[in-house]
Amino acid sequence: MLRVGASSLRPLVGATARSAPLNFRSFSNLRPNVLQTLQKQRKNFTLSNLKFPRYSTEIPIIERSKPVSWQRIALIAGGVAGTVVLLDGALNRETRDSLSMAERSLLNSTFAYTGTGLAVIAATARVMFTSGVTFRIMAANPWVVVGASLAGGIGSMMGVFWTPPENTVQKHLFWLTFNAFQAATLSPLFFFNPAVLARAGLYTLGVVGSLSYVGATAANDKYLMMGGPLLAGVSVVALSALAPMVLPVTAVRALAVTEAIYLYGGLAVFGGFVLYDTQKILKHARMAEAGLMKRDPINESVGLELDIINIFIRLVQILGMGNNRK
Hints:
- This protein is an all-alpha fold.
- The protein is built from ten helices and no strands.
- It has one domain.
- It is about 70% helix and about 0% strand.
- Helix 7 (about 195-215) packs across helix 9.
- It is a multi-pass membrane protein.
- InterPro entries: Bax_inhibitor_1-related (IPR006214).
């Protein structure tokens, strides 16, 4: 399952000022006076007449770090907790019994692999950014980069899915390769302000945590029926991402609508995928317990990683746009 991530340029139009009518033929009469003035200024020009700003090299300029706003952190934590309660009350009117040992084990293993994979992606992307690999990727042919990233990402993901869980070494190598391709795709995000990335990560943690809790405590297979609508939604989001390649630059309103669909519609769609994938993990745990399939937390983690990455990317873009408006 492939779940794939547009800016607009706004030309500035200057205003022209109207002056008193001027006879352009008289410009030749003004030229000698201008030359004489320039010659006088050239004779009087010396470096001592210039005034340069003086900077002291003895005292380093250090930007003071802003104090931690515990009030803001408390408000964010309260907002996340309130969101979890509201979502649980709105979506989980019919709850289930406590998780079985098999369900709890597979769910914990899947989220452990998901967290480890995201940590590997973040660390690898940071190394690529600081070592200059990101700049070389961006300077290359964009079509070659897109083709290589899609081929490598999809190929390594298929390798993870098709490798049986008994072949531990090969499966982990495919999994690490998949994370490396995701890191190469996400490394340009480090051009954003670190505060924006931190806020987006915090919000992503709150969104995914609350939706995962709702999916784990909901009635069995309640959100598995969302597979068809979610597939249609992700298709619309993917087409809206390709809209700038088709629509003319003058279609400003259409581009704005497609960008809104890509950002906010994508948030809704991939939030639904978190619910869907969480309940799919629990169903696979029950099937594995019954001997109908093999227990494979690495396969389950790939879908959750893609959901979290897509939510994080959109939150970074939304927060970045908000900072640009200030």
